[in-house]
# Entry
Amino acid sequence: MPAVPDWVVSYVGLPFKEGGRDRSGLDCYGLLRLVINEQFGGSVPEYEGIAYQPGEDHDLLVTLMDERIRLWVPVAQGTERPGDGILLRVMGRPIHVGVVVTTDVMLHIEKDCDSIIESCGRGSRWDRRVLGFYRHAA
# Structure
């Protein structure tokens, strides 16, 4: 794995909390929001209530995401940069996000796993799950 920027260290090991939006506990979107707002001068809103639980109404999640996706600009793979979001498929659905750290490396958090740096490039467990990269318009 390539060397990661110094700023990333302060985000590794943060605890998971469903719907969490601060350092005391975060879900994947909360981590993405925190990093963009703190490190990249963004103003990404909280979007409370978009956390997805398996078995919940998938159509509701899609509606919520559709309303908000206009604030995110697609970025061609290979042109992503630190601070961009990465959308990932889990259980066949686009329900997980991470933060681009360097090419093929992301910071993310999952249930039962504190925030970690992990490869999302070729041959990684995330390789075939990457759906795209996005930059927040703000």
Strands lie at 21-22, 25-26, 72-75, 85-90, 93-102, 105-110, 113-119, 130-136. DSSP finds two helices and eight strands in the chain. The chain has a mean pLDDT of 86.
